[in-house]
Amino acid sequence: MSSRFPQFRQLAAVVITAGLLTMHASAQQPARITLDDAIKLALTNSPSIKALRTTIDQSKAQEITAHLRPNPDLSWDTQFIPIFSPNLFSVDTLNTLQQFDMGVGYLFERGQKRQRRFDAAKDLTAVTEAQVHDGERALTFNVAQQFVNVLLAKSNLQFTTTDLESYKRTVQINEDRYKAGDLSKSDFLKIKVQLLQFQTDVNAARLAQVQALASLRQLIGYDQLPAGYDVIGDLAYEPVHGGLDDMEALAIRERPDYRAAQLGINSAQSQLNLAKANGKQDLNASFLYSHVSDASSGSFFFSIPLPIFNRNQGEIARTRFALDQAQFTSTAARDIVYTDVRNAYEGLKSNEEIVTLYQGGYLQQAEESRDISEFAYKQGAAALLDYLDAERSYRATELAYRQTLAAYMVSLEQLKQATGTRTLP
């Protein structure tokens, strides 16, 4: 039995070492996130959203304040103390001369003020929550847009790097031809100088990728991602089948800013009800116990202001206008929703047409034109300038296609933002 322990210890050491090595290796690997991951991380960790969400807690704290009852009043006094006649301090003076009073009072609110205050605070919280959701909607779009920028930069970098390596081979082949006497020095220099544009494209794409990743990291929360993180995904065409009417109906149901405008009407109505309640005069009631000249007694006191001049007319009028303002604001918000949806939808369809044109033949034609010009030039049937021009056209077409795909994906994100949901029909 004892002979097994060394083997067991060796096996355990191997397992532990392998586990530590695996953890170390995984720690060295950069984080890779998808678009959904980026949005979730941003909504969870973005400092701006965290700051915005505190307004909900603040509003709920105001609900507590609005629902509180008035505090009762406690009063007391003692009178006729013979401070300047110390010789009169005696039990007889206490019983026959001095006066003691103690009372308790309470303010009875009329017009359901407490309930009206609470209703107004709750309606304001509902508006605040909708506004926070609208802030989350804006952040989601910004993250998605920046994510697409990263994908575009990565795709451009991959293409320009591959194109650069391919052109380097072309330069090497023509350099061999030049050394063998099959190519003039002038033509060789023209081919070699063209290499600068390929290298410039690679450097520009690499810089764009670094900047796009940094901007995305800022939106998510700088401390939430390692410096060498990367994204998962590709530029892709994702068709949308719903019509404009479907998108508008979806936006009316889902847009949090429109919901906030509608809830603002309820909040304005609550403020009007509170203003009317504040026009009701409150009753002050108190009970006073008195001890005077060796006799004790109790008294009740009541007071209420007479609503002759101040009946809160100004605040009632103001809240009526505020209610009208909230209704107009809701109508304006609805019009904004319709405009946003239409603009986003038309932008999506326009970019979709361009993407379809590229995929329908222009990409293949640009590549074929480049290949034909290259073959003809090598066979001596085409001029060098024609070949270089075909090469530039091919590169420009490929980069433009990637830019068009990115524009389509951004317009799709704009439509999702305009409708207020990431699930489109």
Give a brief outline of the structure.
The chain has 425 residues and is an alpha+beta fold. The protein is 71% helix and 9% strand.
Question: Would you kindly provide a written description of the structure presented here, covering whatever features stand out?
Answer:
- The protein has 425 residues and is α+β, with helices and mostly antiparallel strands.
- The chain has one domain (38-68, 112-279, 314-419): Up-down Bundle (Outer membrane efflux proteins (OEP)).
- It has helices at residues 4-28, 35-45, 47-66, 91-96, 113-180, 185-193, 195-220, 244-254, 256-278, 313-378, 384-419; strands at residues 32-33, 73-79, 99-108, 230-231, 283-292, 295-303.
- The protein has a four-stranded antiparallel sheet with strand order 2-3-5-6. A two-stranded parallel ribbon has the order 1-4.
- The radius of gyration is 39 Å and the shape is elongated.
- Residues 1-5 and 20-29 have low confidence and may be disordered.
